[in-house]
TrEMBL record:
<protein>
    <recommendedName>
        <fullName>Guanylate kinase</fullName>
        <ecNumber>2.7.4.8</ecNumber>
    </recommendedName>
</protein>
<dbReference type="GO" id="GO:0004385">
    <property type="term" value="F:GMP kinase activity"/>
</dbReference>
<keyword id="KW-0808">Transferase</keyword>
<keyword id="KW-0547">Nucleotide-binding</keyword>
<feature type="binding site">
    <location>
        <begin position="14"/>
        <end position="21"/>
    </location>
    <ligand>
        <name>ATP</name>
    </ligand>
</feature>
<dbReference type="Pfam" id="PF00625">
    <property type="entry name" value="Guanylate_kin"/>
</dbReference>
<comment type="function">
    <text>Essential for recycling GMP and indirectly, cGMP.</text>
</comment>
<dbReference type="InterPro" id="IPR017665">
    <property type="entry name" value="Guanylate_kinase"/>
</dbReference>
<keyword id="KW-0067">ATP-binding</keyword>
<keyword id="KW-0963">Cytoplasm</keyword>
<dbReference type="InterPro" id="IPR008145">
    <property type="entry name" value="GK/Ca_channel_bsu"/>
</dbReference>
<comment type="similarity">
    <text>Belongs to the guanylate kinase family.</text>
</comment>
<dbReference type="InterPro" id="IPR008144">
    <property type="entry name" value="Guanylate_kin-like_dom"/>
</dbReference>
<dbReference type="InterPro" id="IPR027417">
    <property type="entry name" value="P-loop_NTPase"/>
</dbReference>
<feature type="domain" description="Guanylate kinase-like">
    <location>
        <begin position="7"/>
        <end position="185"/>
    </location>
</feature>
<dbReference type="InterPro" id="IPR020590">
    <property type="entry name" value="Guanylate_kinase_CS"/>
</dbReference>
<keyword id="KW-0418">Kinase</keyword>
Length: 208
């Protein structure tokens, strides 16, 4: 008997505040067959965030022990906190032919590409730097110094956009969501899309 095909691993990254989580949550409502991997992190929970639903919140010592035990498929330090993806969770879901989505940073995406070359990676861009800042501040979830750090780090994140298979601009939310869903459908149909790479927008977002 032949082995059933493994699911697809989707990787989504973005500079903080571009709207990645909001887009991914809306995509998962449209595509309930995709499982979201819940990461481990040493970041303290934001108001309303729950253990096991948004993240597995752990102390740094515990996270470092887990790294040493090899439980992570990828892990990275992002904005001063550690984040990691459980290997057994992802491999278990893929083996059950489930599609899995990882919301991770560019460093993690690089590690995933090396470990799982068949993964499909998507980078979300904001339409402009002022809009990215408006969204980060408007979210109201982070202290001013955390927002400054994330805005500063956004340049490095965006500088890696070209490493991703697809780039989606999150200007009008519904358009970006349609784009993300079109990518998922194209992957399922094994019919790669011709997709814009947005070099001028990337240059503008990286400009001093
Ligand atoms: N297209 C959009 N237009 C206007 N606001 C948006 C749009 N998409 C998302 N937002 C808002 O921007 C804010 C940041 O979104 P979100 O929390 O999803 O960002 P993120 O990229 O996941 O950030 P982080 O990586 O820090 O978690 C939220 O308040 C969200 O409602
Ligand atoms: N490499 C990884 N990056 C991750 C993971 N989970 C989340 N992230 C990224 O961290 C930043 C900040 O997230 P926040 O929830 O504190 O706003 C963001 O870019 C996430 O995508 C992970 O498991 N590995």
């Amino acid at each position: 008997m032949s082995t059933p095909a493994a699911g697809t691993l989707f990787v989504v990254a973005a500079p903080s505040g571009a709207g990645k989580s909001t887009l991914v949550n809306a995509l998962l409502e449209r595509e309930p067959a995709i499982s979201l991997s819940i990461s481990h992190t040493t970041r303290p929970p934001r108001p309303g965030e729950e253990y096991g639903r948004h993240y597995y919140f752990v102390e740094r010592a515990e996270f470092e022990r887990e790294v040493a035990e090899g439980i992570f498929l990828e892990h990275a330090e992002v904005h001063g906190n550690l984040y990691g993806t459980s290997r057994t969770t992802v491999d278990g879901l893929l083996a059950q032919s489930r599609d899995v989505l990882l919301e991770i940073d560019w460093q993690g995406a690089r590690q995933i590409r090396a470990a799982k070359p068949d993964c499909v990676s998507v980078f979300i861009l904001p339409p402009s730097r002022p809009e990215l800042e408006r969204r980060l501040r408007g979210r109201g979830s982070d202290a001013p110094e955390v927002i400054e750090r994330r805005l500063h780090n956004s340049r490095e994140e965006i500088a890696h956009a070209h490493e991703f298979d697809y780039i989606v601009v999150n200007d009008r939310f519904e358009d970006a969501l349609d784009d993300l869903q079109a990518i998922v459908h194209a992957v399922r149909l094994r019919s790669p899309l011709q997709w814009a790479r947005h070099p001028a927008l990337i240059d503008a977002l990286l400009a001093p």
